[in-house]
Amino acid sequence: MHLLLILECINIRIFHVIGWVALALVASGRDALLYVHTAFSSLAGIVVLLTAYTSSGYFTKSRALVSALFAGACTSATMWYSIFQVLIDAGKISLQQLSYIWLSFGVLMLISSFLYLDWRFPILNLPYHFGGKSEEKNESSSSVASKSISEIDRMKWYTRILKRKGVWQYLISPLYILVVLFLSILLLPGIFLSVTWYPWVYYITKKDTLLTNQYTFAFNLSTISAIIICPLHGFLLGFNADKSKKNKLFNISLMQTISWLLNIVTCVVCMFPQTSMIIPALVMNCIGRATIVGGSQAVVATFFPSEYIGTLTGVMWTVVGVIATIQYGLVQLTDDVARSWRAWLVVLSLVILMSCHLIQLWWKYVKELRKKSAAATEDNIATRF
């Protein structure tokens, strides 16, 4: 808990402040400050993402809902850039003024975050105390776990991999590998559409700049729906999941299948550059992206131990970032919008290939169902005799 608070207080807030200060000071001859803003804003975003998802481990029975809520918040936050752009273009506010306003929020968060640390002395008579007592109470219960962890820590890294000890037991598990690949591939349609959206709509509207800008603004603003879709997705994932493993597997399998089908529809719709396809593409992309992010993160938060959620989440999103670079090789296929279906066919093929993850999940569910049926049959036989 102390580590999460330190990350939240120092890394996120300070990186946030430095990033917006750099953007506020950008002027002619200070172009390098744009790189500073990009670097520190990215670092702050990464730490926010990992810290938020890792903190879902503190919610034992509602990890799926909490992690999906964080996913929705992170996804919908991109809408602010569209709002900022509209305000700047309309002359309502300047980039420098906007940077200072956002900077003030970062300073307030930095100051307020110190009030929630476990200080050795009281601050403003708040009911917070140093966390030593709670640690002493939990010391006896966690002694066995600490010994096993220390034994694993003394092993060589290659020994941990070969013996599947510690986090490696989960990093190389088939479920985790396919979940990571599933998320990476199924995010491609949404990411690729974001890159090609403007030229695609510009071609469909016969180079109508005003109409294209309106569609683009709607596309960017639609991410706000993730704040509703992701928690709903997380609620469905966690529905009756704590009652049995069968229910948990069914929820996961069903929601991941829905995400997969939505992304297939998105790929097919984007193959046809027609006016009637703009709104369906926008809606399908919005729902599909929100469900896949919330669903895959909920899988990690639900099926793997809480002490490894941070590492597993970090590795997962690193792989997602690496695989997402595939889109840059496909952009050249969209130079001629009329033939951009070739790029979407490649993306569609990759999405269809990830049906292997769905087969894996449904097979796990069938095996669990058979196990329950066999146990019920044995109980009936024992009752009769």
TrEMBL record:
The keyword Ligase does not apply. Keywords: Membrane, Transmembrane, Transmembrane helix. The chain crosses the membrane at residues 12-28, 34-53, 65-88, 100-117, 170-197, 217-239, 260-283, 308-331, 343-363. This is Uncharacterized protein. It comes from Rotaria magnacalcarata.
